[in-house]
């Protein structure tokens, strides 16, 4: 069963209210658009039939006008032959053709009114359809945005992130252990005695003296 009972309901419908009351707005807007599109096709098809009917009537009217001319000629011929009875009968037939042509002209006027109404309905339906499609695009955009936010939140709160932080904790623990082992190597080391430090100074002085002597010897040779 459709949402609308067709054209009048669609034109009068408030799309926003329909979506606000719907349990599934995305599904509802798809149904609304589908029914609007189907109705628009039907109204256009009806307008096309009306136009075709008018064309057929105008062709018939043209034939009736020709028939009236023919009966006029026949009436004139009958009168020229002093056959007033035949002339009168011919004029009766001409009047029948004229009456039929008038009837068809009235029908065309009625169809013109119907066609103008259809044209207005088509314009209104197109406007409603544009509104519905705009709402659909808005819903799709909002849905995509919500899904993206959900994925981001899941990424921050999900198991993968928890696992990553757990691995970071393990790495930090390993670094702590390595630093601890390095620091432990220096524990218990005996400080140098005064004599050892003085001996190191003497050794350094001797190396400096040897280096100075070597430089002087090379300078003399040069």
TrEMBL record:
GO terms for cellular component: cytosol. GO terms for biological process: phage shock. It comes from the Bacteria. Keywords: Coiled coil. Residues 94-149 form a coiled coil. NCBIfam families: phageshock_pspA. Belongs to the PspA/Vipp/IM30 family. This is Phage shock protein PspA. It comes from Sphingobium limneticum. The lineage of its organism: Bacteria, Pseudomonadati, Pseudomonadota, Alphaproteobacteria, Sphingomonadales.
């Amino acid at each position: 069963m459709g949402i609308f009972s067709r054209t009048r309901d669609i034109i009068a419908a408030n799309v926003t209210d329909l979506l606000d009351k719907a349990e599934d707005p995305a599904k509802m807007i798809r149904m609304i658009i589908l029914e609007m599109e189907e109705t628009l096709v039907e109204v256009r098809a009806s307008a096309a039939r009306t136009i075709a009917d008018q064309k057929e009537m105008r062709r018939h009217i043209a034939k009736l006008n020709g028939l009236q001319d023919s009966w006029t000629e026949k009436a004139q011929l009958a009168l020229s032959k002093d056959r007033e009875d035949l002339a009168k009968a011919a004029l009766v037939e001409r009047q029948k053709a004229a009456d039929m042509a008038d009837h068809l002209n009235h029908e065309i006027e009625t169809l013109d009114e119907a066609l103008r109404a259809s044209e207005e309905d088509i314009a209104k339906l197109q406007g409603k359809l544009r509104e519905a499609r705009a709402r659909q695009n808005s819903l799709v955009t909002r849905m995509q945005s919500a899904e993206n936010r959900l994925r981001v939140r899941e990424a921050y709160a999900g198991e993968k992130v928890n696992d990553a932080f757990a691995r970071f904790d393990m790495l930090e623990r390993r670094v702590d252990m390595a630093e601890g082992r390095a620091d432990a190597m220096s524990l218990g080391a005996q400080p140098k005695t005064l004599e050892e430090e003085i001996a190191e100074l003497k050794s350094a002085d001797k190396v400096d003296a040897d280096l100075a002597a070597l430089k002087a010897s090379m300078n003399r040779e040069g």
